[in-house]
Design goal:
This protein is mainly alpha-helical and about 650 residues long. The protein has three domains: about 45-180 and about 420-440, 3-Layer(aba) Sandwich (abc type-2 transporter like fold); about 185-415; about 445-640, no CATH class. It is about 75% helix and about 5% strand. The strands form two sheets. A five-stranded mixed beta sheet has the order 4-1-5-6-7, sandwiched between helices. A two-stranded antiparallel sheet has the order 2-3.
C-alpha cells in the first residue's frame, strides 16, 4: 500500500523509452501552449487592423465654389490612403460591392457623387448634409464588421472636423465677403453710371460747341488778317498826307504855291478816309456776328475769345472819322479852293494830321496784334477741340464701363442670400454636423451571439468529435484479429461514434435555434451542414487516433484544436493574426466549418459554401481511407504493438 503511494513509480512507467519521455514533455508544455499560443496569436489584433483589405469608392464629381473647383472626395480619399489606418483599396463601385459580397473586402466606404455639392450646399437656400455610405457583410467576419464600424466612425469624425475647419470656411467665404457691401456698391455704381452718362452728354455738347468755335475762330483769324492788311493798305496814303501836312506846317512860305495841289490831295485823302471808314464798318460787323456766335457757348474759352473780339471791335469803331475831323477837312478844302489865308489853317491841319497819324499807327498796330492773337486763338481752339474729342471717347468708355459695373453689381446683390430664420437654422445645423453616415448591412447579424455562432458551433462539433475517441477505441482489436476487410474494421468503430456524433449535432442545433433563438437564413441546410461537419471531424479524429495511438492521438488532437482556434478566422479576421496562422488558414478544417455556417446562418451564399462542402466531404472520405490503411497495418503484430509505449 505504501509502495502504491510512491511518487516515482508512475514516473518510471513514462520514462521507459523515448516516446514516453516525449509524452511527458508534451504534457508539461500543454499549459504553455494554451497560454502562450493564444497570447501570441491575439497579442495585438487591433494594432494590425491596417492589414484588413477594405474597399474605398470615390464617386465624388466635385463642385464649384466662388468660381473655384472643389473636390472634397478626392482629398479625403488621398488622406485615407496616406493614413493607412486600414488597407484601403481605391476601386470602382461594382468591384467594391462584388468584393464585399464574396469576401475579398471586409467592408466598403463610398463617397457619393454629390459629396462636394452637399458640402457646398450651405451657400444655397437648400442646405443638406453630405453622406458617407458604408456597407458591411457580417458573413465575411462579424468582428471585422465591428472593427469597420469603429474605423468608419473615426473617419466620420475626421472628415467632419476637416470640413468644419477648412472646406466649410472656403464655402462660406462667398457669404462673409458679400452682403450689404455688395448692395451699397451696387447703389454707388448706379450713381456713378448716371454721372458718367451726364458727363458723356456734356462732353458731347462741348465737342459740338468747340467744333463751332474752331470753325468761327478760323474765320475770325482769316478775317482779322484781311482786316489788318486792308487797314495797312488804307492808311498808307493817309500817312503820306500826314507827313505832307507836317511839312506844310514847317514850310508855310511855300504853301501859297502849293494850295491847289493840297486841295487836290485833301480831296483824295477824304476819299481814302471814306474807304477806310467803310472797311472798318465791315470789319466791325464781321466781329459782331462772330461775337454773337461765340456768346451762345458759355464755356471759359468762348467767353475769353468773345471779350477780346469786343475790345477789337470797339477800337475799330473808336477810330472812325469824327464830325470834328470832317469839319476841319471841309474848312481846309474850302480855304484851299478860295485861295484865302491858308497858313493858319494848314498849321491846324498839320497838328491834327500828326494826331491822325498817331491814331492811324495805333490802328495798324492794333489790327496786326488782333490778327496775331486770333491766329493763336484759332490754333488753341483746334488743340482744345482735339483734346475734347479724346475726352469724349474716354467718357463714352467710362459710361459703358460704369453701366457694366452697375449691371454686374446688381446681379451680385441679387445673389446675396436672403435667408429666413428657418433657413439659417438649417444652415447652422449643416455646418455644425456637415457629414452624416448612411450605413447598410449585407447579411446582418442582429447580435454578437449570432455573429459568433458559426465559430462556437464548429468548435463544439470538433471538441465533441475529439471526446468521442476518448470513450471509443478508434479500431476494434477483435475485428482486426478476425482479419476482416480494413474498411469494415474502420466502419465498425466509426459508426458507433457517428451514432452519438449526429445526436450531438442535433441537440446542439435545437438548443441554439430554440433556446438561444439564433435566427438562421437556411435552418434545414444549417442542420445538415452541422451533421456533415460532425461526421467529418469524427473521421479526422478517428484517423489520427488510429495512426498515432490513443495517447499520442489525443495529444495531437488537442494541439490541432488549439491551432485551429487561432487560424480559422472565427474570432478575429485572419489577417490580424501572425503569418504562420495565416498560412494554416486554408488547411484548417474549422475554417470551412465556420465559413459554411456563416453563410447558412447569416445568408449571402456564394462559392465559399460549396468550397466548404467539398472540403469537408473530401476530408471525411480521406480520413476514412487513412483509418482503413491504419487497420490494415494493425493486422500485422509486432513487439511494439504487444508492449505499447504509452497506455491509458
Amino acid at each position: 500500500m505504501v509502495g502504491g503511494l510512491a511518487l516515482g513509480s508512475e514516473i518510471k512507467r513514462f520514462a521507459r523509452n523515448r516516446m514516453t519521455r516525449i509524452a511527458i514533455v508534451v504534457l508539461m508544455l500543454m499549459p504553455l501552449s494554451y497560454g502562450a499560443l493564444y497570447l501570441w496569436a491575439y497579442w495585438d489584433p487591433f494594432g494590425h487592423v491596417n492589414k484588413l483589405p477594405v474597399a474605398l469608392v470615390n464617386s465624388d464629381r466635385g463642385a464649384e465654389v466662388s468660381g473655384e473647383p472643389m473636390n472634397v472626395g478626392a482629398e479625403i480619399a488621398g488622406r485615407l490612403a496616406d493614413d493607412a489606418s486600414l488597407d484601403w483599396h481605391l476601386v470602382d463601385d461594382a468591384e467594391a460591392r462584388d468584393g464585399v459580397a464574396h469576401g475579398k473586402y471586409y467592408f466598403m466606404l463610398e463617397l457619393p457623387p454629390d459629396f462636394s455639392e452637399a458640402i457646398a450646399s450651405p451657400t444655397t437656400g437648400n442646405p443638406r448634409k453630405a453622406q458617407l455610405i458604408a456597407e458591411y457583410n457580417d458573413a465575411n467576419n462579424y468582428i471585422s464588421s465591428s472593427i469597420g464600424r469603429t474605423a468608419v466612425e473615426q473617419v466620420l469624425n475626421a472628415v467632419s472636423t476637416r470640413i468644419s475647419g477648412q472646406a466649410v470656411n472656403q464655402v462660406l467665404s462667398v457669404i462673409t465677403t458679400s452682403g450689404t457691401g455688395i448692395k451699397q456698391a451696387a447703389d454707388g455704381a448706379a450713381q456713378l453710371s448716371d454721372g458718367a452718362a451726364q458727363l458723356d452728354s456734356g462732353a458731347g455738347q462741348l465737342v459740338a460747341g468747340l467744333d463751332a468755335a474752331r470753325s468761327g475762330s478760323g474765320d475770325l483769324a482769316a478775317g482779322s488778317r484781311t482786316l489788318s492788311d486792308g487797314i495797312d493798305t488804307a492808311t498808307d496814303p493817309l500817312l503820306k498826307i500826314t507827313d505832307l501836312l507836317a511839312q506844310i506846317g514847317t514850310q508855310s512860305d511855300q504853301v501859297n504855291g502849293q494850295v491847289q495841289d493840297s486841295s487836290s490831295a485833301l480831296t483824295e485823302a477824304s476819299d481814302e478816309l471814306d474807304a477806310i471808314n467803310g472797311t472798318q464798318d465791315a470789319a466791325a460787323q464781321s466781329l459782331t456776328s462772330i461775337i454773337d456766335s461765340l456768346s451762345a457757348n458759355q464755356d471759359p474759352v468762348s467767353m475769353m475769345a468773345t471779350g477780346k473780339l469786343r475790345e477789337t471791335r470797339d477800337q475799330l469803331l473808336a477810330h472812325q472819322r469824327t464830325p470834328d475831323i470832317q469839319a476841319k477837312l471841309d474848312k481846309a478844302r474850302a480855304a484851299a479852293d478860295a485861295g484865302g489865308p491858308v497858313g493858319s489853317a494848314l498849321t491846324d491841319i498839320s497838328s491834327k494830321g500828326k494826331e491822325l497819324s498817331d491814331k492811324l499807327t495805333q490802328l495798324r498796330d492794333g489790327a496786326q496784334q488782333l490778327a496775331s492773337g486770333n491766329a493763336q486763338l484759332s490754333a488753341g481752339i483746334a488743340t482744345l477741340d482735339d483734346g475734347v474729342r479724346q475726352l469724349k471717347s474716354g467718357t463714352a468708355q467710362l459710361r459703358s464701363g460704369s453701366n457694366e459695373l452697375e449691371t454686374k453689381l446688381a446681379e451680385g446683390a441679387q445673389k446675396v442670400p436672403d435667408w429666413s430664420p428657418q433657413q439659417k437654422d438649417a444652415i447652422a445645423e449643416a455646418i455644425g454636423g456637415p457629414v452624416q453616415l448612411t450605413s447598410s448591412h449585407e447579411n446582418s447579424a442582429p447580435n454578437f451571439g449570432t455573429g459568433m455562432a458559426p465559430f462556437f458551433l464548429t468548435l463544439a462539433l470538433f471538441f465533441g468529435a475529439m471526446l468521442l475517441w476518448m470513450a471509443f477505441r478508434p479500431l476494434q482489436n477483435r475485428a482486426i484479429a478476425a482479419e476482416i476487410s480494413p474498411i469494415r474494421v474502420t466502419l465498425a468503430s466509426y459508426l458507433p461514434a457517428v451514432l452519438i456524433g449526429i445526436p450531438q449535432a442535433v441537440i446542439l442545433y435545437c438548443v441554439v435555434r430554440f433556446a438561444l433563438h439564433v435566427h438562421a437564413e437556411h435552418p434545414v441546410a444549417m442542420l445538415g451542414f452541422m451533421m456533415l461537419a460532425s461526421c467529418a471531424f469524427i473521421a479526422v479524429a478517428q484517423a489520427i487516433s488510429a495512426w498515432l495511438g490513443p495517447v499520442l492521438g489525443k495529444v495531437l488532437l488537442m494541439t490541432l484544436l488549439m491551432v485551429q482556434l487561432v487560424s480559422a478566422g472565427g474570432l478575429y479576421p485572419v489577417e490580424t493574426t501572425t503569418k504562420p496562422f495565416q498560412s494554416l488558414h486554408r488547411l484548417d478544417p474549422m475554417t470551412y466549418g465556420v465559413n459554411g455556417l456563416r453563410q447558412l446562418i447569416l445568408g449571402g451564399i456564394d462559392q465559399r459554401l460549396w468550397q466548404a462542402l467539398i472540403f469537408l466531404g473530401a476530408l471525411w472520405l480521406g480520413s476514412i481511407l487513412l483509418t482503413a490503411l491504419a487497420a490494415r497495418r494493425n493486422q500485422l503484430w509486432n513487439l511494439t504493438r504487444l508492449v505499447p509505449s504509452v497506455k491509458m
